[in-house]
Fold these 4 entries.
Entry 1:
Amino acid sequence: MSEVWSNWSGWVKAWPNAIIEPASEEELADAMRVAQAPVRVAGSGHSFTALVESSGTIISLNKMSGLLDHDSTKHTARIKAGTTIRDLGPMLFDRGMGLANQGDIDRQAVAGAVGTGTHGTGVGLGSISAAVTGFRLVTAAGDVMNASATENPDLFNAGRVSMGSLGVMSEITMQALPAYALEETGGRMPVETVLAQVEELRDAHRHFEFFWFPYSDEAIVKFLSETDTEAKPRRRRDDGAETRDDKIFRLACDVSIYLPFLRGPIQKYLTSASGRYSLSTDEPGRVRWSHDAFPSDRNNKFNEMEYAVPAEVGPDCAREVAAHMRKCGINFLFPLEYRYVAADDIWLSPFYQRDSVTISVHQYHRQPYADLFAGVEAIFRRYQGRPHWGKLHTQKARDFATMYPRWDDFCKLRGELDPQARLLNAHLKDVFGVE
């Protein structure tokens, strides 16, 4: 028995028979042919669902990192699948490029972010998966397949969001942009003003999101806008290195466990600590290159649920979720997070053929999450929500069949590529309805 594997939050653990770390596509293919099932692939472990859990084999992509090739004219890059987004940013920048969009956490391996539909925010901007123009996939049998819009197009449309259920990506080609700088502005605003003007706020900036502590009457808005102003380099702390703000927020979370009646006052205080934002302000913001502007170093561990709902019902859904969280009596401290993602054509993407708003609910890792998440999940479902594949949900195959028009096509392709279901653990067997 090998060592224990754990995800980032610590709530998902596995004791696999073997953890294999191939350093090349050839080693990966050899490992896939002989690995004990279930065979699951791990990037950085930043998913909250049990995607990687296995008593058989976990294949780590840690040693498959780096940039294979790039095209400076077309602004495309071939990337080893285990490369983290944090490492990818400087690699692209050194070649005059930047990702079109990314989330505010960059710990994920590119393959994990692509495979779960991870995203940032911005009107007209898709997920990281939508920026993929091709990939190489090692199947359960150890065969290597190319996929793009012109080569194996069904595999391309299915495989860009597939949670490692079709095989393991060895390399990914992504469409990028010429390197660009972003100016960050924001602050707190009355939450009803934000909800009433979300479309105006969304359309006025390249990126818009807001954070709302449900016990507060104000939300914290964040904008990133493209600019020609000279960008200042950012000195990133080592991954996991705590800041003063990290320590303060962790203390607040720990206090609220033992003194839950303080959750309301603490949430209001944390909101008030952000400066006030006015739509009429002309104050300049912080300017950084895109790969430095997107990430926020989040070191306080949590578990998370996120659903994508049709963009037009986002404000109503957020109001109802926040009201439930205030009334349910369950202790929590983290804010809601509200973002925009453009529609795409990926079969199991939460944004398939639908411009969406994503709403995220978090719970501190030292507190149970099931009851809190169950209540908000019921609301998300009433608003035709689709769950993020890497974040907690309780949906099964019968539910997904009603959410995704290409569900049956995906399941048929999965069965053809892995007829013995060697790539499915218990969690994914529930997802796909496989005995």
Entry 2:
Amino acid sequence: MTNAATLGAPALPENPATGHAPSHALIKPGYHPRLTNEDLAPLRHQTWGQYNIFAFWMSDVHSVGGYITAGSLFALGLSSWQVLVALLVGICIVQFFCNLVAKPSQMTGTPYPVICRASFGVLGANIPAIIRGLIAVAWYGIQTYLASAAFMVVALHFFPHWAPYADVAQHGFAGLSTLGWVAFMVMWVLQAIVFWHGMESIRKFIDWAGPAVYVVMGLLCGWLVWKAGWSNINMNLGGVKFEGWDAVPVMLSAIALVVSYFSGPMLNFGDFSRYAKKFDAVKKGNFWGLPVNFLFFSLLTVITTAATLPVFGELITDPVHTVSKIDSTTAVVLGALTFMVATIGINIVANFVSPAFDFSNVAPQHISWRTGGMIAAVGSIFITPWNLYNNPEVIHYTLDVLGSFIGPLFGILIADYYLVRKQHVDVDALYSMDPRGAYWYTNGYNRKAVWAMVPGALVPMLCVFVPTLHGAANYAWFIGTAVGFVAYALLNKNRR
């Protein structure tokens, strides 16, 4: 196997923007400009350790969305031990697949859209890149909107007379209040600043953001338990409704929910694993960041959520709402800022870095990594994510259709790397437009990968739209992955 970190290092061409050779990228003279820039090229040095991967998952898990998702599992009518089993099984499945998708990028030092060139062709890789990029744009806008809610809590706490400007009926535009626009754009700019400083700044941000959220969540949980009294807290948030075999289908749905929640960052996890020193560091970071971290975070979440009932007289699943109910300026500010930081963390790692690489891959000489990220950020404004989020039916169908493509993309990538190519990648060929190159195919597109995507995406979409099949919609990712994997393997059975 060819490892980018150990490839020979010929003299690098000068970067016209800076006038000197880049220090982090390994660009060979034969790499085609249409396929190469400093951000997409194999890394010269891979420096991340297991803590950096662990911190990545902390930032990915510790968000308002993650809080609500974990808490919702306890409201499905299952007992605590049943939810615990579902959480562990679901997150272990995520860990297993993350290890699979991490290896090709870590070994080659290349991001997700580049490693996809092996299966889709050097130009065909734009298909999975654009699909993943569009999904990230939608979620980037929604997460920014959720984070802006925490900013509004702080603003209204100190300036209650601004309340009319928080009412879209009195002062609003395009479905969002004036204060909502201010809050959204503040969060938008803060995230852009962190992103603009590059991956090293992002690494430093996520290294401390995840632990910081734990500290504040621990304080919030401890205060609520102290106020409620442990004996008054019921861990079965929705009441136990399913026992014995009747609980199995619900537990399977809970497992599928956990896997689906992580399906986006799981697909493009190679964008981060490429920075790891060794694959062993990735595996250890995934172990501590996924099963261990997610289980602890989930328990912290459900205790906090359960304690809101005896303390406030209502069950509150939104942590921002919980913080806003506390009669303490310090607590409100600290809590709101924490969840703002948490959401910035997941937004950058899951929905900013990904489209930055994806859109850059479309036209590397014209779209840099930073430009690709800003395209996603600007696009997230124009889709007015608050209108999507406030209309669950629209967002359900929009993201389910896009999400139906995540499964087959994952299945094709895994089948190609492990089954067809036996974990061998010609790194130089990933950047070659030579018709004799290993990944050129016909006109740069591997038709077999495209054909494998057709049933892989069509079957889960039928589950979403056909009422009689809607019961299988929760398993769309698994179905798409399996169909994409099998279809690609069968189409390439003579190439193994």
Entry 3:
Amino acid sequence: MELIFEVRDAEEGGFYARALGHPIFTDGDTWEALRTNVLKATSVYFEEGTEHPRLVQLHYV
């Protein structure tokens, strides 16, 4: 499974991301912080026993 996040600029600075097709939302002050938060949020959403995505992509819009 591949998971794609749509990334946009946040009004207050930084970025926010939402997964396409899944209710996963997160943000970050920097691109690296956003990337870390996306991976953490994905891990929490896909708990043990469920299929984890093998690829997570960030697409800046």
Entry 4:
Amino acid sequence: MKKIIFALVVLLSVQFANAQVKPAATAKKAVESAQAASQDAKKATKVATWLKLAKSYMDAYNSPKGNAMNMLGMGVGQQEVALQLAGEKPTATENVVLGGEPCIKEVYATRDYVYNSKGQFVTIIVTKPVVEDALAGALEAYKKAYEVDAKQSKIKDITEGIAAVSNSYLDDGMTAYMLGDNATASKYFGLAAEASLVEPYNKVNTEALYNAGYTALASGNVEQAKKYYEKCLEHNYYYENGEVFAKLGEIYTNLEQPEKACEILEQGFMKYPQSQSILIGLINYYLQSKKDTGRLFELIAAAKANEPSNASLYYVEGNIYNELRQAVKADEEGAEAKKQEYFDAAIKAYEECVKVNPEFEFGYIGKGIQYYNYAVELQDKASNEFNQAKYEALLAEMEKALEKALEPFEQAYNVSKDNALRVNVAEYLKNINYRFYSKGAEYEAAYNKYNEIVKSGQAN
């Protein structure tokens, strides 16, 4: 999965850094002792009692992880971990896939240690906790500590403790996500977000909210995903390119609330008109609801009025026409005329884009791809044409389209400063020049040039 925020898969709390974990029996006994103290009426009025209980829960939470837990995120390998474990040996070693990556898992009595394909220590999977729901117990103890701390003398300790609980839930959420258990991941990300709101820490963890929504949706829990994504919007958190709006649009559509989906998508479009996922969501809404797609151009016109010098808005306009063209059904009345109308409008929009900003490579790319894809369509038609004259006419038209694609692609290659983008453009240029290879030395030279760029992955 791509759209999750990869919080550090390590214990982020400073207060536990480099701490030696307690043996399971010792940790469990400490929890029981601290619990008993908290039941004493006199001791329960003291902040130290609750801080001790909270710490005992956190020690119990960390105990199964072994003394190598502090080495996560340091890039160390199995040998360094083995030294930290002072002779403790794994009972088994397995090849596993975690987060889509091949990994090696070492099995210990209370946990599994996972190493990535580079041999780096990346994750701990606890298989035998000392105390169930230790983090929940720690959080409740920190709440009580804050409640009885009338002089607020331990605010720093309580705040750091709550942050540690929230970060530990994040860690558990990421581990569950890597294991492919999205439902459990969503639960832990949600708990991380809730913990971060506890006084006196009281911080909105938008990354945890987003991850909770994303994994809830991935697990099929649409209502849960809606709750977390709506909270993201409440806190003005939209993720990359307004992805939260796009996800909520998808969710409301699935919940058969198309008008609400449209409302959310339009809000997102006004903030992120360049978002392809928001744009496609809106286009699908207007096409499926059979409403006037002119509303899309009203939105883009409003965005242009706010930012008349924003070249990307013209690029988006071209994309709208392109998507509408793709949506035309072959059997609908006037299909070819509609497709041509949208094609011409898209080309015009891409040309306006580079007039506004001649250095904006995507305007050139949009135009080039439009002609290139049209050429592919013509080639497909030609391959199914048995009439020789019509076949040759289609091929001639295809070559004209490829010729028209050459210049914008070359312009994009020349103005772009992004190596990866230039290499992608070079792939198109290589293919086009290969088609014209026999037509002249300039095409042969161009093909050789772009072929070398594609093979090397480095634009010159």
